[in-house]
Amino acid sequence: MIDKICKYITNKIRKEMPDIDDERAEVIMYGIQLIIGEIPKVFSVFIIGAILGLWWQTLVTFWILLPYKYASGGFHLKSHIGCFIGTNLIYCGNAYLSTIINLDVYTKILLIVLNLILGIIMIYKYAPADTINLPILTKKERKLKRNLSYIFLTINMIIAMVVPNIIITNILVFGTAIQTFSITKIAYKLTKNEYGYEAYLQGNI
Protein backbone atom coordinates (compact mmCIF):
# COMPACT_ATOMS: atom_id res chain seq x y z
CA MET A 1 0.00 0.00 0.00
CA ILE A 2 2.76 2.42 0.96
CA ASP A 3 4.70 1.55 -2.20
CA LYS A 4 1.65 2.32 -4.36
CA ILE A 5 1.13 5.69 -2.68
CA CYS A 6 4.81 6.59 -3.07
CA LYS A 7 4.84 5.53 -6.72
CA TYR A 8 1.73 7.63 -7.39
CA ILE A 9 3.32 10.71 -5.80
CA THR A 10 6.57 10.15 -7.69
CA ASN A 11 4.72 9.88 -11.01
CA LYS A 12 2.89 13.11 -10.23
CA ILE A 13 6.20 14.84 -9.58
CA ARG A 14 7.63 13.50 -12.86
CA LYS A 15 4.67 14.87 -14.77
CA GLU A 16 5.30 18.29 -13.30
CA MET A 17 9.06 17.98 -13.86
CA PRO A 18 9.62 15.95 -17.04
CA ASP A 19 13.41 16.44 -16.90
CA ILE A 20 13.64 13.95 -14.00
CA ASP A 21 15.21 10.72 -15.28
CA ASP A 22 14.56 7.19 -13.99
CA GLU A 23 17.56 7.21 -11.66
CA ARG A 24 16.56 10.48 -10.04
CA ALA A 25 12.96 9.29 -9.80
CA GLU A 26 14.11 6.24 -7.80
CA VAL A 27 15.89 8.52 -5.34
CA ILE A 28 12.77 10.72 -5.03
CA MET A 29 10.55 7.69 -4.50
CA TYR A 30 12.88 6.33 -1.84
CA GLY A 31 12.81 9.67 -0.03
CA ILE A 32 9.00 9.72 -0.14
CA GLN A 33 8.93 6.14 1.19
CA LEU A 34 11.09 7.19 4.11
CA ILE A 35 8.89 10.17 4.93
CA ILE A 36 5.58 8.30 4.65
CA GLY A 37 6.99 5.18 6.30
CA GLU A 38 8.46 7.08 9.24
CA ILE A 39 5.15 8.65 10.33
CA PRO A 40 3.36 5.41 11.33
CA LYS A 41 6.60 4.03 12.79
CA VAL A 42 7.03 7.02 15.09
CA PHE A 43 3.43 6.77 16.26
CA SER A 44 3.78 3.01 16.79
CA VAL A 45 6.91 3.52 18.92
CA PHE A 46 5.08 5.89 21.28
CA ILE A 47 1.91 3.76 21.36
CA ILE A 48 3.79 0.54 22.15
CA GLY A 49 5.89 2.39 24.72
CA ALA A 50 2.71 3.64 26.40
CA ILE A 51 1.14 0.16 26.36
CA LEU A 52 4.26 -1.22 28.05
CA GLY A 53 4.11 1.52 30.68
CA LEU A 54 7.28 3.09 29.29
CA TRP A 55 5.83 6.18 27.67
CA TRP A 56 8.26 8.77 29.03
CA GLN A 57 11.27 6.48 28.72
CA THR A 58 10.40 5.80 25.07
CA LEU A 59 9.83 9.50 24.43
CA VAL A 60 13.22 10.38 25.94
CA THR A 61 14.93 7.56 24.02
CA PHE A 62 13.53 8.78 20.71
CA TRP A 63 14.22 12.50 21.04
CA ILE A 64 17.51 12.38 22.89
CA LEU A 65 19.11 10.04 20.33
CA LEU A 66 17.60 11.65 17.22
CA PRO A 67 20.37 14.28 16.69
CA TYR A 68 23.13 11.66 16.83
CA LYS A 69 21.21 9.36 14.49
CA TYR A 70 20.52 12.22 12.05
CA ALA A 71 24.18 13.21 11.90
CA SER A 72 25.86 9.79 11.84
CA GLY A 73 23.35 7.96 9.61
CA GLY A 74 23.09 4.17 9.59
CA PHE A 75 21.65 1.22 7.72
CA HIS A 76 18.05 0.89 6.54
CA LEU A 77 16.09 -2.35 6.69
CA LYS A 78 14.72 -3.29 3.29
CA SER A 79 11.08 -4.14 4.11
CA HIS A 80 8.47 -1.97 5.82
CA ILE A 81 7.66 -4.78 8.27
CA GLY A 82 11.33 -5.31 9.10
CA CYS A 83 11.82 -1.59 9.58
CA PHE A 84 8.71 -1.40 11.77
CA ILE A 85 9.89 -4.24 14.00
CA GLY A 86 13.50 -3.00 14.10
CA THR A 87 12.51 0.55 15.02
CA ASN A 88 10.29 -0.58 17.86
CA LEU A 89 12.91 -3.00 19.17
CA ILE A 90 15.55 -0.27 19.18
CA TYR A 91 13.50 2.41 20.92
CA CYS A 92 11.06 0.44 23.10
CA GLY A 93 13.66 -2.25 23.78
CA ASN A 94 16.20 0.34 24.86
CA ALA A 95 13.61 2.03 27.09
CA TYR A 96 12.78 -1.32 28.71
CA LEU A 97 16.41 -2.35 29.30
CA SER A 98 17.21 1.09 30.67
CA THR A 99 14.45 0.67 33.24
CA ILE A 100 15.45 -2.77 34.53
CA ILE A 101 19.27 -2.43 34.49
CA ASN A 102 20.98 -0.60 37.34
CA LEU A 103 24.58 0.31 36.55
CA ASP A 104 27.00 0.95 39.38
CA VAL A 105 29.19 4.05 39.20
CA TYR A 106 32.32 2.27 37.93
CA THR A 107 30.47 0.33 35.23
CA LYS A 108 28.73 3.50 34.11
CA ILE A 109 32.02 5.38 33.78
CA LEU A 110 33.62 2.46 31.92
CA LEU A 111 30.75 2.21 29.43
CA ILE A 112 30.75 5.96 28.85
CA VAL A 113 34.50 5.96 28.15
CA LEU A 114 34.15 2.96 25.81
CA ASN A 115 31.24 4.66 24.04
CA LEU A 116 33.36 7.74 23.48
CA ILE A 117 36.45 5.91 22.26
CA LEU A 118 34.64 3.45 19.97
CA GLY A 119 32.22 6.15 18.82
CA ILE A 120 35.01 8.49 17.76
CA ILE A 121 36.76 5.68 15.87
CA MET A 122 33.59 4.52 14.11
CA ILE A 123 32.54 8.08 13.23
CA TYR A 124 35.98 8.72 11.73
CA LYS A 125 35.79 5.52 9.67
CA TYR A 126 32.13 5.45 8.59
CA ALA A 127 30.11 8.60 9.37
CA PRO A 128 28.01 9.84 7.82
CA ALA A 129 26.89 6.30 6.98
CA ASP A 130 24.62 6.68 3.96
CA THR A 131 22.92 4.18 1.64
CA ILE A 132 22.82 3.64 -2.11
CA ASN A 133 19.30 5.08 -2.33
CA LEU A 134 20.22 8.23 -0.40
CA PRO A 135 23.96 8.81 -0.86
CA ILE A 136 25.68 11.81 0.73
CA LEU A 137 28.08 12.88 -1.99
CA THR A 138 29.25 16.43 -1.32
CA LYS A 139 32.38 16.81 0.79
CA LYS A 140 30.87 19.80 2.57
CA GLU A 141 27.80 17.86 3.78
CA ARG A 142 29.87 14.82 4.73
CA LYS A 143 32.28 16.94 6.76
CA LEU A 144 29.43 18.78 8.48
CA LYS A 145 27.61 15.58 9.46
CA ARG A 146 30.80 13.93 10.64
CA ASN A 147 31.64 16.90 12.85
CA LEU A 148 28.06 16.98 14.17
CA SER A 149 28.37 13.28 14.96
CA TYR A 150 31.41 13.96 17.15
CA ILE A 151 29.55 16.78 18.88
CA PHE A 152 26.32 14.85 19.56
CA LEU A 153 28.25 11.78 20.70
CA THR A 154 30.21 13.88 23.19
CA ILE A 155 27.11 15.73 24.41
CA ASN A 156 25.28 12.42 24.97
CA MET A 157 28.14 11.04 27.03
CA ILE A 158 28.54 14.22 29.08
CA ILE A 159 24.82 14.14 29.92
CA ALA A 160 25.08 10.43 30.75
CA MET A 161 27.94 11.19 33.13
CA VAL A 162 26.32 14.05 35.04
CA VAL A 163 22.57 13.33 34.98
CA PRO A 164 21.37 11.92 38.32
CA ASN A 165 18.58 9.80 36.78
CA ILE A 166 19.97 6.30 36.14
CA ILE A 167 17.29 5.50 33.54
CA ILE A 168 18.26 8.48 31.40
CA THR A 169 21.92 7.54 31.82
CA ASN A 170 21.16 4.02 30.62
CA ILE A 171 19.13 5.30 27.68
CA LEU A 172 22.07 7.42 26.56
CA VAL A 173 24.69 4.73 27.11
CA PHE A 174 22.80 1.87 25.45
CA GLY A 175 21.16 3.98 22.75
CA THR A 176 24.39 5.67 21.71
CA ALA A 177 26.13 2.29 21.52
CA ILE A 178 23.35 0.88 19.32
CA GLN A 179 23.45 3.91 17.02
CA THR A 180 27.24 3.73 16.73
CA PHE A 181 26.97 0.04 15.82
CA SER A 182 24.38 0.86 13.12
CA ILE A 183 26.96 2.78 11.07
CA THR A 184 29.63 0.06 11.10
CA LYS A 185 30.55 -2.24 8.22
CA ILE A 186 29.48 -5.26 10.28
CA ALA A 187 25.96 -3.84 10.68
CA TYR A 188 25.80 -3.03 6.96
CA LYS A 189 26.85 -6.57 6.01
CA LEU A 190 24.33 -8.14 8.40
CA THR A 191 21.50 -6.04 6.93
CA LYS A 192 22.77 -6.34 3.32
CA ASN A 193 23.26 -2.58 2.92
CA GLU A 194 25.99 -0.70 1.07
CA TYR A 195 27.50 2.69 1.76
CA GLY A 196 26.25 5.09 -0.90
CA TYR A 197 29.42 7.18 -0.99
CA GLU A 198 31.65 4.13 -1.48
CA ALA A 199 29.40 2.82 -4.25
CA TYR A 200 29.54 6.23 -5.95
CA LEU A 201 33.35 6.32 -5.84
CA GLN A 202 33.44 2.81 -7.31
CA GLY A 203 31.06 3.86 -10.10
CA ASN A 204 28.26 1.55 -8.97
CA ILE A 205 25.68 4.35 -8.72
Which helices and strands appear, and what pairs or packs with what?
Blueprint: H1 2-16, H2 22-51, H3 55-72, H4 80-100, H5 105-126, H6 139-162, H7 166-182, H8 185-190, H9 196-201
Measure the end-to-end span.
Answer: 27 Å
What portion of the residues fall into strands of 2 or more residues? Answer: under 5%
- The structure class reads mainly alpha
* Overall mean confidence score, pLDDT: 89
Q: How many strands, what sense, and barrel or not for the largest sheet?
A: none
Unreliable stretches: none
What is the H-and-E element order?
Answer: HHHHHHHHH
Rg over alpha carbons:
18 Å
Shape: globular
Percent helix range: over 70%
Task: Write a structural description.
It is a single chain. By secondary structure, the chain is mainly alpha-helical. The protein has one domain. Helices cover 78% and strands 0% of the residues. It contains nine helices and no strands. The chain has helices spanning 2-16, 22-51, 55-72, 80-100, 105-126, 139-162, 166-182, 185-190, 196-201. Helix 5 (105-126) runs antiparallel to helix 6 and helix 5 (105-126) runs parallel beside helix 7. The longest helix has 30 residues, at 22-51. It is globular and about 60 Å long. The two termini are 27 Å apart. The model has no long low-confidence stretch (mean pLDDT 89).
